[in-house]
Amino acid sequence: MKKAIVNNVYWVGKVDWELRRFHGDEFSTNSGSTYNSYLIKEEKTVLIDTVWSPFDEEFVENLAGEIDLNRIDAVIANHGEVDHSGALPCLMKHIPNTPIYCTANAVKSLKGQYHQDWNFVVVKTGDKLDLGNGKELIFVEMPMLHWPDSMAAYLTGDNVLFSNDAFGQHIATNSLFNDTVDQCTLMNEAIKYYANILTPFSQILRKKLEEIVALNLPIDIIATSHGVIWRTNPMQIVEKYALWANDYKENQITVVYDTMWNGTKTLAEQISEGIRSADPDVTVKVFNITKSDINDVMTEVFKSKTVVVGSPTNSRSILHSVAGFIHMMKQLRFKNKKGAAFGCHGWSGEGVNIMSAMLADAGLEVIDEGLKNLWNPDEEAQQKAFQYGKTIAGF
To answer: In DSSP terms, which residues pair with 47 in a beta bridge?
Structure first.
């Protein structure tokens, strides 16, 4: 069922209450999500994006219940990823000649995924589509936010920015608007979305935000591709993105570890207590990476000024859980953060050196050579770990 957004703009997407993993198994969506598709009914009727392919037939059937599909004058494909474009093949069977407005890279991605030669109309920043009634869609290319094919579309008159993946969150909700959902959940999901998806493109995002501001377009509504639509003070999320894109960090230190026989766990707990002892004002969070949601942990890393990582030495290396965690930090290209390593060993003891090298390779400033402990930590070793935490707090 369509839902009114403003004047002749309607939401015609899908709420996915059951979604728990996204991008394959890479991203946790514990609050579900939405696939937001929009219908604009002026003199011309335009559909902006579709939904994920598992819901393609449902989407087309619902859309046909709202409008004669042959009256759709244009489809806007802001992004070729399947959670946005998945229903296109099903839809285009009904309207095969309807033009699809998208970037040149989106033509490549849509052809590459669906192997169809639809009626593509390539657009670039500043190009316009006249909708009649004095309204236009203005296109803004947004490459690498977060795919090379991404763009946004701005509706004049109603001042709606259809922002694609930018400014979104994974929240399943029937109410759809930012002022109708729990604000803590909203902002937690928004920063998690940014930390895990958009962080690698922060430099590009900073420039794009400047470009959008320079267009001097009044924005009354930001209609995202996932989660809620920002209608109450919509620029609040733009301001958050400007903050997050600027090598963001808070007064927080996060300790992340895995352990085999609890020796490294003991070190982690003592290090955290030492940090808190030396600096009562710093927020300290401790995670066993195998017992935690890695995307939630990455959100905490994003907020942190220092990340302390621990693993016992295993097979002359480190546990794969910790190796994968550090590799993910490298993928996300966090900036302006410090790092340190610790761990127990029984024989060869290479683990700490390996982690330190991996942290440096991930772009963190490694504080020192790290803390190594032979066998299970006794009282003296635990005190040493406590003091190491105090040392970390001083950086």
So the answer is: 39, 75
